[in-house]
Amino acid sequence: MDQGTALIVGKVCALITILSFVLLPLAGCQGVDIYGYQILQDTSRDAQVFFILGWIVVIVCAIAFFASRPATLIGLGILGLVSMIVMLLHIKQTADPLFRAMVEFKPGAFGTILGFIGMIVVPLLGKSEKERKNISRR
Fold it and tell me: Hey, which end of the chain has fewer CB within 10 Å, N or C?
């Protein structure tokens, strides 16, 4: 796969990521689901960490659409993946101790994580054999 195709596929991964985050449930407990759009709208003091991490996820995906280099897409994918994992761990930890074991991650969380992994892996597949050898030596 050449770099141009890898960039296009990486941008499709970013689109899938943002749609998964905003439109699909991320987590839930006892029939109550949390969606990304709810996280992006909640500015209360208790939800500041979620608000900031949620906007990082969205901004990373938006910037990925304008990426012109595979290294940029890889860096954005790593930043988004770390933000999403921190957010999910924070959701699990801030739940009431009685309900913590019942908090489950939903398709939106998995779609978002897989999208970010795609943003990281696909540009690496687009690199030439020589460039891959240089990366592995570092």
Answer: C
Q: Is the pLDDT of residue 78 over 90?
A: yes
**Structure confidence by residue, pLDDT tens digits, 89-116:** 888 888 777 777 888 899 999 999 999 9
Give the side-chain half-sphere CA count within 13 A for 135. Answer: 12
DSSP output for 4-64: HHHHHHHHHHHHHHHHHHHHSEEEEETTEEEEHHHHHH--SGGGHHHHHHHHHHHHHHHHH
Q: Between β-strands 104-105 and 25-29, what pairing exists: parallel, antiparallel or unpaired? A: antiparallel
- Cβ atoms of 134 and 59 within 8 Å: the answer is no
